[in-house]
Amino acid sequence: MDRKKDNLINKEIERQFNIIIDKAKDVVTQDELKQKLFKSISENKPLKIKLGIDLTAPDVHLGHTVVLNKLKEFQDLGHIAILILGDYTTRVGDPSGRTKVRPILSIEEIKKNAETFRNQVFRILDPDKTELVNNSEWLEPMKLEDVINITSRYTLARLLERNDFSYRFKNNIPISIMEILYPLMQAYDSVVIKADIELGGTDQTFNLLTGRDMQREFNQEPQVIITFPLLVGTDGIEKMSKSLGNYIGITEEKDIMFAKIMSISDDVMFDYFKLISNFTYSKIEELERNVSEGKVNPGDVKRKLARNIVNIYQGKNSGEEAERIFNTKFKIGFFDKELINEISRPFKLKPEMFKNGKIWLIKLLNEVGYARSNSEARRLVEQKGIKLDNDILSNVDLELGIDELRGKILQRGKREYIKFV
RNA sequence: GGGGGAGUUCCCGAGUGGUCAAAGGGAACGGACUGUAAAUCCGUUGGUGUUUACCUUCAGAGGUUCGAAUCCUCUCUCCCCCA
Prior knowledge:
By secondary structure, the chain is α/β, with parallel strands linked by helices. It is 50% helix and 13% strand. It has three domains: 2-230, Rossmann fold (3-Layer(aba) Sandwich), CATH 3.40.50; 254-331, Tyrosyl-Transfer RNA Synthetase, CATH 1.10.240; 343-420, Structural Genomics Hypothetical 15.5 Kd Protein In mrcA-pckA Intergenic Region, Chain A (Roll), CATH 3.10.290. A six-stranded mixed β-sheet has the order 1-6-5-2-3-4, sandwiched between helices. A five-stranded mixed β-sheet has the order 7-13-12-9-10, covered by helices on one side.
């Protein structure tokens, strides 16, 4: 009888374990994870899964989704997701990977970012199974005495084990004391919420490990840490992040999202497949093989990826819709007036813009926001970057009447359209 | 506390009396090309409807000079070294 029960428990541990470590880069430690699962399953007590969020930028992007999706999987397994918004820690700034001191964000900015983030994150997580907390809740009221209590449990030498700190230290690049506090504050979050497991990107390994140490110092069972590969950004080199401008936000316009995915290099395309798409591993392998054997056009495979991801975040069939817009907007020599008409921004012509019924082209370009000065507008025209209903306008002195404009489409460059109404 | 260095156009950075609206790179924008908003190549990148001109710009305020990003004085900001 007991044997049968044990068997069931072991099976369940195995099942959860496999789901949990899927896509993970590192688990510290696997044995501890199994023990925690055993306890959770046999005592029917859900585990507390911590994920800390930095609020330097508001938007949830595809890079975040790797770990957010994992948190969702934990929720589906019946565990408790604790999302810690680092509204206080962000005032300090995570030094991870930084080679210089970060600029400090104002409290207002952080508040705004938190608001946006909260709205977006529930596109992925189940709001009913998520505990959302701000770490200012416990960090703000601290007294110096409390800070001393925490800092006395850690040493400079241990902090200097970190690459980013030791690099800066050796090269005489400033490290503020504030930054040193960051990993400690972050680690203390784990103590406060009594985390069983903490998730994060591989760049967070040190911070997460500090959480383990800190919990031990406070006589808690140390959390298991699970790190995940960082998704490379659209530049194909750096990790995806807002500050590097190489990110794809999950709430971006579908065609922009589609286009951004199409812009990633072929080398990183399969990282995207593996980390953030809905394709099965066997399907991905097949696609990968086909591409490397030259059987298929990599562009077509990337389109599959783009459609899939857009569908996940923008709703059913949005991928196909996005692709249609993409084709018109970004394919060369493809002027589908009907579709452009649909996607171009309307601009209302006002009579007061016209003098004697005419407007100077250069002036018009300023009015619609295509240029910020006459010089800039003139350059655009001279460089043949301006088209009216697909005809190049190259005369800088051109004057246009209101009837010559109404209903027509003004285009700047390859993919900016305005429809005059 | 003492000594030294730096602040240049969106960013990095060259420029130490006129030839400077200021090299070069990055970024951005336009064009060509491409399966791709990748790569590559070419062009543009303070402003002004009279564009071989004029105006504004080289941390800030004054000054020297026919003439200053460049020299002098003070102020502000940042960094480094020694203690």
